[in-house]
Amino acid sequence: MERKDFYLEQYVEDTQKILMGTRKQTGILDKNYFEFKELCEQVKNHFNDKVKKDSEDMLEYQKKAILGYQKQVNYFLELIEEFLKENNKSSVPYPPWYASLSEGIFHERWGLAGIHTWFSMESSSSCKIVGKRIYFMVNGKQQLQEQSFSEERLKQLKKALILGTPEKRLNEKYHEVYMVDGTRIQIFNAAKEVSIVFRKYVIDTYTFDQQARLETIDPLMIPLLESMVECGFNVAFTGPVRTGKTTFLTTYQSYEDPTLEGVMVETDPEIPLHIIMPTAPIIQLLADDEELDKVLKPMMRSDGDYLIMAEARDGRSLNVAVEITKKGTRRVKMSFHTGNATNFCFDVAQLISKELGGDVWANMIQVAEGFNYVFSFQQLSHDKSKKKLKGIYEIRFDPESLLISSHQICKYNYENNNWEYKYDIGERLEEIGTEESVEAIKKFKEILKKLSEEKPMQGNHVKISPYSKLMSPMIKGA
Fold first, then answer.
1. Same fold, 119-201 and 208-477
2. CA atoms of 408 and 395, how far apart (whole Å)
3. How far apart are CA 296 and CA 300, in angstroms?
4. b/e string for 258-285 if b means 16 or more Cβ within 10 A?
5. Which of 317, 355, 357, 427 is the right S-S partner for 312, CB 3.0 to 4.6 Å?
6. In a 10 Å sphere around its CB, with 0-12 CB exposed, 13-18 middle and 19+ buried, how is residue 241 labelled?
7. CB-hemisphere CA count at 13 Å for 287?
8. Mapped to the 3 state alphabet, what secondary structure does 245-284 carry?
9. Are 182 and 201 spatial neighbours (Cβ–Cβ below 8 Å)?
């Protein structure tokens, strides 16, 4: 049988037409599909005869094979190959999205079945199974797929995956599992329908020029950003999920001095800095929950010039970042989920206080003194594949008035699809920039002033934290 070049997009389109009955068929494709499915059933029955059904050993092997352990994957493939040869079935046609007949049988009966093709979609960051339905993230939107899971197959997959968290019980409402390649699997049992979310980290490595070509940033601001990196400011990249925070953090970090020593802490293995900055002496650590409490001391002993806290999700990770800034460390970078950049100090302080204790107001002051700029990102509602730098805010704390304020120096104008600027630099930032690089702070000020004259920001650009307004007179009057 002649093998033709296979294109996934064309295959999906043709398959949809076939299933919808929009064109005549010879019946060959349908015949091949059912012959393959019948073979899958034969292999399954053969395995059930050889191994006690649903035995713990088999489930353990299946779990490890699904998670990507090569030894266990090879175990299934070898047994399938043996069956095919003994029964003269090696020539049975198989769906073209599988690399081999044995691989196809494995995934249909014990592996990832209908979502197997998602792993080859490099630009898709997530896949969801909701009941029987399967969704792939395509161009920023979840698209319903034609293939689906049977109830029996979904239960089998869930049980095998949950074996990856033996400390939890099968009936618990939530499980989190990781595959060998770092793909995060979240299993939700609480609703009427079981849901499983697969999330792989698609971190594109861009330059500022490429970010500008994608229209994420203004091309005129590139020299401004380059000088910000050189000035050594402590920055946070914020926004809702899937707005490009981590990707931009990676871009920003790639302009950092490669001779400086850095420490990057992640809860998931997301940013491949060893590839992005192969010559830079950056220590990459994985830590989560209570492990984060033990990270601070080793980090201080590592002689790192700066810290990267990739996606600070909770009070512990945020506290590590704030504590590092309190030591006088500069060039600190982190990403953080928040929909309102002007509430950054309060949101961070509240999470720290909730998890580790302490006064929210005291933690707010530490956040305001530790971080210099907050970048805010958003995705367009009409085209979620488009990310935009929504604004850049300088954080200030006035020790006399006890007020915390956000000074916006860059703003995206949705009406004209362009950016506006405001020349406003606090004394503290001038001092930091001067200590790090006289030339860089001079360049930063000149560029911001020029942009402010050419594309002036309209309206009020300063916002006082509401919590700050509330607490300041109370403390002064105490």
1. no
2. 9
3. 6
4. eeeebbbbbbbebbebeeebeebebebe
5. 317
6. exposed
7. 23
8. HHHHHHHHHCCCCCCCCEEEEECCCCCCHHHHCCCCCEEE
9. yes
Kindly tell me the number of DSSP H helices and DSSP E strands found in the chain.
17, 16
Distance (Å, whole) CA 101 – CA 106: 9
Distance CA 388, CA 377 (A): 6
Question: Which residues sit opposite 273 in a β-bridge?
Answer: none
Confirm if 309 and 320 have CB atoms less than 8 A apart. yes
Q: Is 476 helix (H, G, I), strand (E, B) or coil?
A: helix
Spell out a b/e string for 80-100, using b for 16 or more CB atoms within 10 Å of the CB, else e. beebbeeeebeebbbbebbee
Q: Which CATH class is domain 119-201?
A: alpha beta
The tokens for 353 are 């206080």
Q: Which CATH number fits domain 208-477: 2.60.40.1730, 3.30.70.120, 3.40.50.2300, 3.40.50.300?
A: 3.40.50.300
Q: Where are the domains of the chain?
A: 1-111, 119-201, 208-477
Please report, in tens digits, the pLDDT of each residue of the chain (478 residues total): 333 443 444 433 443 443 333 333 223 334 556 788 889 888 888 877 665 544 556 667 777 777 777 888 888 888 899 999 999 999 888 877 778 889 888 888 777 777 877 887 877 878 888 888 889 888 777 888 877 777 777 877 777 777 655 555 556 777 877 776 768 788 887 667 788 888 876 566 789 999 999 999 999 999 999 999 999 999 999 999 888 898 899 999 999 999 999 988 887 666 777 778 888 998 888 777 777 767 666 666 666 789 998 888 889 899 999 999 998 999 999 999 998 999 999 999 999 999 999 999 999 999 999 999 999 999 887 776 789 999 999 999 999 888 999 999 999 999 999 999 999 999 999 999 999 999 999 999 999 999 999 999 999 999 998 887 777 666 665 5
How many other CB atoms are found less than 10 A from the CB of residue 453?
10
Q: How far is CA 137 from the centre of its chain?
A: 13
Burial 305-326 (b: 16+ CB within 10 A, else e): bbbbbbbbbbbbbbbbbbbbbe
| Token pair in block for residue 72 | 């266990």
- Total residues belonging to the chain: 478
Q: What letter represents residue 189's amino acid? A: N
